[in-house]
Amino acid sequence: MHVFEYAVLRVVPRVEREEFLNVGVILYCRSLGFLETRCALPEARLRAFAPDLEQEEIITRLHAFERICQGRATGGTIGQLPIAERFRWLTATRSTVVQCSPVHPGRCADAAATLTRLFAELVQ
């Protein structure tokens, strides 16, 4: 069994109202060298929840999370950091339209399967 940490990615259209819609999960497992995010933007729900929100901007921000997790040059300066630092940077507290929940720990045998399960439970 391996210790992992995860956070839920949220769209927060109006930060002052603290209302959000879960759109993804980011999972980090140090012992497996695993850092990955899975996202899905439920466009109809988001339109109903925040009709004035620019969905293309949200998609761009979520793709940035994916590129940083991959750790390549396409992830920019942050994407070049060691895996643990990338996770900490991605899950840092922000007052933007895309935010992360607090980080939660767990134990798993398979990080990819755990990410799939968490995504199904928390987002879909």
What's the structural blueprint in terms of helices and strands?
Elements (H helix, E strand, L loop, with lengths): L1 E10 L9 E9 L4 E6 L3 H7 L5 H16 L5 H4 L3 H8 L7 E3 L3 E5 L2 H12 L2
Antiparallel strand pairs: 1-2, 1-4, 1-5, 2-3
Short descriptors:
DUF3037; DUF3037 domain-containing protein; 124 residues
- Counted beta strands: 5
Q: What is the average per-residue confidence, as pLDDT, rounded to a whole number?
A: 92
Helix/strand/pairing class, anyone? alpha+beta
As a percent range, the share of helical residues equals 25-40%
Q: What separation lies between the terminal Cα atoms?
A: 26 Å
Sequence stretches where pLDDT stays below 50 over 5 or more residues: none
Largest sheet: 5 strands, antiparallel
In quaternary terms, these chains amount to single chain
Query: How much beta, percentage-wise?
Result: 25-35%
- Determine Rg (CA atoms, Å): 14 Å
SS summary, helix count: 5
Order of helices and strands: EEEHHHHEEH
Envelope shape: globular
Protein name: DUF3037 domain-containing protein
InterPro entries: DUF3037 (IPR021398)
Organism: Hymenobacter antarcticus
Structural commentary:
38% of the residues lie in helices and 27% in strands. The chain contains five helices and five strands; from the N terminus they run βββααααββα. Strands 1, 2, 3, 4 and 5 form a five-stranded antiparallel beta sheet that branches. The longest helix is centred in the middle third of the chain and has 16 residues. The chain is globular. 27% of the residues are buried. It comes from Hymenobacter antarcticus. InterPro entries: DUF3037 (IPR021398). This is DUF3037 domain-containing protein.
